[in-house]
Design brief:
By secondary structure, the chain is an all-alpha fold. It has ten helices and no strands. The radius of gyration is 18 Å and the shape is elongated.
Length: about 200
C-alpha cells in the first residue's frame, strides 16, 4: 500500500519546514496504518517508529522519542535478514535522544556502536560517519572527555571538508563543535581562530 509511504514522505517535508505538529500527526497516522497492514514486527513499522521519534525529539518530547527509538532498535534486532543499516541509523537516533535527555554515557555508547557499524558497512569516508563522529565528539565534550572529543572533532571536520563544500551547514556545525571543545580546554585563541 502506497498510502503510508506518501504520509511519511509528506510528514518528512513538514518536519523540515518546521511544521512539527502536522508532521507528528501524519507520522502517527502512517505508523498506525503500517501496524494494521503489516503487524507489529515489520521493517516499515520500525521505520515509522524512527520517523515519529525524530519529530518528537524536535518538539522536545524526549522521553517518548527515546521510547520509540528503543522500540525500533529492538524490533530491527529481532527481524530476520540483514538489518545492520537500519540498526546503525536507529542507534544514532537513540543516541541523539539520550544526549538531549542528559543521558550522556548511554548516548556515548550508542554513538560508538553506530559509528563502528557505519564504518564496517560503508567505510570511513561517508557523510554519515562524519556526522556521527561529530555527534560523538559533542557528547564527549559534555562528559568532559576533552582530549578524545578534540581528536574526533578534528577528524569529523577534516572528513566533512572532503565531502561537503566549505559553506555547507555540516562544515559550519563541525567548526563550531571543534571551537566549543577548544574553549572547554581553555584554548580560547585557537577556538576564536576557527571562526575567522
Amino acid at each position: 500500500c502506497a498510502l503510508p509511504i506518501s504520509l511519511s514522505g509528506l510528514a518528512r517535508v513538514l518536519r523540515h519546514e518546521g511544521n512539527l505538529a502536522d508532521a507528528e500527526s501524519l507520522h502517527r497516522e502512517a505508523l498506525d496504518l503500517r501496524r494494521r497492514l503489516y503487524g507489529n514486527e515489520n521493517r516499515e513499522v520500525a521505520t515509522s517508529l524512527n520517523d515519529l521519534g525524530l519529530v518528537l525529539r524536535s518538539q522536545g518530547k524526549l522521553a517518548e522519542s527515546e521510547k520509540l527509538h528503543r522500540e525500533a532498535l529492538a524490533m530491527q534486532k529481532r527481524l530476520p535478514g540483514n538489518q545492520n543499516e537500519a540498526i546503525a541509523v536507529s542507534l544514532n537516533n537513540l543516541a541523539l535522544a539520550l544526549g538531549d535527555e542528559g543521558k550522556r554515557p548511554e548516548a556515548e555508547q550508542c554513538f560508538r556502536e553506530s559509528l563502528a557499524m557505519q564504518k564496517k558497512l560503508w567505510g570511513d569516508n561517508t557523510a554519515g560517519v562524519a556526522i556521527t563522529t561529530d555527534n560523538l565528539a559533542f557528547v564527549l565534550r559534555e562528559e568532559d572527555k576533552l582530549t578524545e572529543a578534540e581528536t574526533l572533532a578534528r577528524q569529523s571536520l577534516a572528513l566533512q571538508r572532503k565531502i561537503f563544500p566549505e559553506d555547507h551547514p555540516s562544515v559550519a556545525t563541525a567548526l563550531n563543535d571543534l571551537a566549543l571543545v577548544l574553549a572547554a580546554k581553555e584554548e580560547y585563541d585557537a577556538a576564536a581562530n576557527l571562526h575567522q
